[in-house]
Amino acid sequence: MPLSLSYSPEVSDAKAAFAPIVALESTIVTHGMPWPRNLETALAVEAEVRAAGAVPATIAVVGGRIHAGLAPDALEALARAEGVAKLSRADLAAALARGITGSTTVAATMICARLAGIAVFATGGIGGVHRGAETSFDISADLQELAQTPVTVVSAGAKAILDLPKTLEVLETLGVPVIAYQSDAFPAFWSRSSGLAAPLRMDSAAEIAAAHRMRGLLGLPGGQLVGNPIPEEDEIPRAEIEPMIARAMADTAGASGKDVTPALLARLYELSGGRTLEANIALVRANARLAAEIALRLA
Ligand code: PSU
Ligand code: MN
Predict the structure, then answer these.
(1) Which residues participate in substrate binding (predicted)?
(2) What band does 1 get if pLDDT is binned at 50, 70 and 90?
(3) What is the pLDDT of residue 19?
(4) Of 5, 145, 235, 266, which is least surrounded by CB within 10 A?
(5) What is the topology classification, in CATH, of domain 5-298?
(6) Is residue 172 predicted with pLDDT exceeding 90?
(7) Residue of 46, 76, 159, 235 marked catalytic
């Protein structure tokens, strides 16, 4: 049984021309946002990448094939589907072998992007160490992936539902460069600052691209995590979001495993009257623009 990897015509042409490409994930579509805003956002994010001069490659597994670049009808089918598998490093191979359809998390998207020869990837917020991990042991596979797969991931930090100090500690242990873009602080997804100093600060896409190249020259296996603070006009200040996170955690205490993050995001959407979704959309779009700039410098 061969591994099948399909490129959209646009991505295939870009690869042939060594043109800049930005990978995009699909779990944010299937598990991160409600229909129909999920589809609108996915299309808007792709448009941001194109407007910045790069080609978007939304990644998902459809019928046991990895797709790098999804046709609009395939993207719509994923966005509408219910009960789609959320694939990470642990279950990607099994999904391909069984011929199933699933969306890819940050970890799985990094694996597929590397296979497709794509070095830059934009998402919203990565997974990390959950609050209470000292008893639950719930730590996202996204962190391990950043340590072993050479893709630069542009995010607005780790999702603020997480324990951000512990997430930064684990990233340090794993040797993952954490770069805040034009900021001294590690961003906190819906808020511009987590109040925690970022280990590295870079002020230009060129600098981030140069650091990515240098890791390759050193033969280091992992990627880089870029934290791009949400645009000021779209942020939800930390003081406002924190009580909602505490409430959402209490309300979703029954969720476990892969359901924890989607349950928290869905509850926060309700508690905030939709504000978390608007902020999420704005930050993903901003990340797509920065990722495209980095891809342009790398191409
Ligand atoms: N960014 C968003 N919304 C999301 C995600 C990222 O703005 O829903 C997804 C990513 O696919 C990430 C996943 O890998 O959430 C983390 O899930 P977990 O905590 O179960 O590892
Ligand atoms: Mn988890």
Answers:
(1) 86, 106, 140-142
(2) confident
(3) 98
(4) 5
(5) Indigoidine synthase fold (3.40.1790)
(6) yes
(7) 159
pLDDT at 2 > cutoff 90: no
Closest CA to 284 of 75, 10, 24, 77: 24
Q: Rounded CA gap, 157 and 229, in Å?
A: 8
Residue 199 and residue 142: Cα distance in Å, rounded? 18
Find the length of the chain: 299
User: 86 among the known binding-site residues?
Assistant: yes
Task: Tell me the Ramachandran region of residue 264: left when phi exceeds 0, alpha when psi lies from -120 to 50, beta otherwise.
Answer: alpha
The CB density around residue 293, as the number of other CB atoms within 10 Å, is 22
293 alpha-carbon distance from chain centroid:
17
d(CA 102, CA 243): 33
Task: Flag whether the ipTM exceeds 0.90.
Answer: yes
Contact by Cβ (8 Å): 286, 235: no
- 159 given a catalytic annotation: yes
Give the DSSP letter string of 48-114.
Answer: HHHHTT-EEEEEEEETTEEEES--HHHHHHHHH-SS-EEE-HHHHHHHHHHT--EEE-HHHHHHHHH
- Best probe residue, ligand 1, of 106, 151, 281 (max atoms within 8 Å of C-beta): 106
pLDDT at 106: 98
Query: How far is ligand 2, taken at its centre, from the CA of residue 257, in Å?
Result: 5
* pLDDT at residue number 99: 96
| Ligand 1 surroundings by CB, under 6 angstroms | 25, 27-28, 31-32, 105-106, 123-125, 127, 140, 142, 258, 261, 265, 280, 284
Task: Report residue 188's pLDDT band, with 50, 70 and 90 as the boundaries.
Answer: very high
278 is catalytic: no
With b for 16 or more beta-carbon neighbours within 10 A and e for fewer, the 272-289 pattern comes to beebbbbbbbbbbbbbbb
* Among 24, 28, 264, residue to substitute to test ligand 1 (most atoms within 8 Å of Cβ): 28
